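Intended use. Records like the one below are meant for learning the mapping from a protein sequence to its folded structure. Do not use them to infer anything beyond what is encoded.
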Amino acid sequence: MPEIPFDKIESALSGPKAGPPDSVYLVFGEDYLVEEAVNAVLDRVFPDTADRSAHIETVDMSDGESIYDIVERITTLSFFSARKVLRLKADTVFKSGFSPEDHLRKIEEARLSDDIRLAANLLKDILTRQGAAAEDVLTGEPAKAIGVDPSAWTPNEWIRQAAGHLSETGADAASAPAADGAAILRQTIEKGLPDGHFLVITTSSADRRTALYKAVSQHHTAINCTVPAGARKADIDAQKAILSSVMRKILAKHAKSADSKVFAKVYELTGFAPRVFAGNIEKLAFFAGEAKTIRAEDVDAVLGRTREDPVFVFTNALLEKNANSALYYLKSLLDAGFHYLQIHSAVTSQIRKLLSVKLFMQSQYGRDWRPGMRFDAFKSKVLPRATEYDRKMADAAISQSEQQAADTEQPGGQGAGKKKKKTKTASKKQSDLAIVKNPNNPYPIYQGFLQADRFSASEIRGFIIRLHEADVRLKTSGSTPGAVLEELVLHICFSNEPSGK
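Structure written out for the chain above:
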């Protein structure tokens, strides 16, 4: 079957000529477009979306799970009669080489969630490919067993624990060579899946010369989400065409249109970054409120700072709990020369503001706020109360500072200068925590409220403790700054305490 390009997905999957859903789909290319294509496939497999999440399982092959276990999941008959989908993230299958460093990073992520089983599976995959065993990590030369430069290796207790888990469970990896995942997956596809079972394979790239690609494309469905990355006019035109289709889909979902200058202004701010571009169009749709048309002036009001403040883009992704985007922008900032303490300071500032908003919500002033409140209602009901709350908190901070200064003032009026300095410091500190810094630009304030609803107050206080710990590590330990910040990002993005009020 011919490949389906991204901009033809809707007609190919749900148009009048579309047949029943295929049993195997290969979706490859740019990550945001891949996610959109997968959603289109799932809509085709599950026309009724009410309970489909219970029948979809996601497996990432880079987590080190055995290919035989994966195949068993695909082919084992479901206990229920409903359809079953396995979403298989298969970047490792389509890569020509293997990088132990990628697995080591995932082991660190497993440590953060205290998942020893996942860490052991990842370590087992590394050792199997190296022809080594868990005992080589425990009693031999760990760096050599894992296949990394010994001069760059530092003792890692978590990896030792993962090796101990392998040894204790009898899952030592030296007994067999690494299985050819691509070949086994191809054989499974050629044999056919049970009725009602569907396999959706996703990857960042797919070599058309491989047997696995041919097995899918000849008898099943391959969806091409790649986009030319060059700077030629033809490449740029192709990039704009993709973004234009993304914009049309989002506007249709919100029953809105946009004037002719909106696309050009948003594209100028983002370039070809589909996930960021789509997020900005979503923001504009919410900002427009009841208006049916998004105007060029709306872009200036909502997105004016995106280009000039890349740190804001990073912290925004962080507070949206979008780990992939947050890690991507963190790396971009570090690569661009931003100092790690500058990034840490920006995160600290945003978390403190988040706590201020949360405390407002819990106060008598925040009673009108409702999760998911529309922007126009926020402006009329909540914004004035937040402004009043800021004023009350500033007055209280100054009053407290003056009282403390009076209590310590020396006889004869000495210490008046210190009193004035303390009052000024308290005023500035409270101003930094103010919720409404610019009442003439209320939309970013509204976004802060939406972000605060993703977390509980106790959770945010916990983030402040973690930020302090990270600050100490960044300034005093030998830890790699990037790794410390990545750990902080993952902790915030994968927090799962109910947000409450």
